[in-house]
Design goal:
The chain is α+β, with helices and mostly antiparallel strands and 204 residues long. It has helices at 2-21, 64-71, 74-84, 105-115, 129-134, 174-183, and strands at 35-38, 43-45, 54-58, 88-93, 121-124, 138-139, 141-145, 151-155, 198-199. The chain is globular, with a radius of gyration of 18 Å.
Length: 204
């Protein structure tokens, strides 16, 4: 009887671990709060920006799909446009140490300066905990949270699944549209899409 109880507990723990590994937030529900360290070593929490529209961008600067948007200046333009409207933009790197895209804080700060990024903060998620909580699987993968803390968009940056910067001009940018509609108090017309890009380089 005792052995069966131990086995049952072990199964429950395993199922909980699997559920956590496959966790994914759902559009229309509250965005989970988190706290991560930025390039300056300061803690940044999603709850710091209560009452603001927030964009979460999963990033890996070694990924060619990310290079497409940063090398062309498209991502920086989106970030700057968002900032001009009072929107908070948090770039999150969930690449584990030793994996593609991972950078120490000082290197990440230097990279952001070289790329002239306009995000509010670049956040380090080395353990991958936040990325897995949000179900982030790709870079870039995008989330838009409204001023009430509700996730209103999750998915791809646009509708052109390529690494060719030439496709940006003719692409429909889902994130820009979601921001515009959210700020206007309208429901997001396309709240969910399939993110495209490189796999997030988690530790396991």
């Amino acid at each position: 009887m005792y052995g069966l109880s131990l086995m049952k507990n072990a199964i429950l723990i395993l199922l909980a671990a699997v559920a956590l590994a496959n966790a994914e937030v759902t559009v229309g529900t509250p965005a989970p709060d988190f706290t991560l360290t930025n390039c300056e070593g300061k803690n940044v929490s999603l709850s710091d920006y209560k009452g603001k529209v927030v964009v979460l961008e999963w990033v890996n600067h070694g990924c060619p799909f990310v290079v497409k948007h940063y090398g062309s200046g498209n991502m920086q333009k989106l970030q700057a446009d968002a900032a001009s409207k009072g929107v908070i933009w948090l770039s999150i790197c969930s690449s584990a140490p030793g994996k593609q895209g991972h950078m120490a804080a000082a290197d990440a700060s230097k990279s952001c300066a070289e790329k002239a990024t306009a995000s509010t903060a670049y956040l380090l998620d080395e353990s991958g905990k936040v990325g897995k909580t949000y179900g982030a699987k790709r870079t870039p993968e995008m989330y838009v949270v409204n001023a009430e803390g509700i996730l209103v968009y999750h998915g791809a940056i646009d509708d052109k699944k390529s690494t060719d910067p030439g496709d940006i001009a003719t692409a429909k940018n889902h994130v820009a549209a979601a921001i515009e509609e959210t700020l206007a108090g309208k429901p997001v017309s396309t709240p969910q899409t399939d993110a495209y890009g490189c796999s997030v380089k988690y530790a396991n």
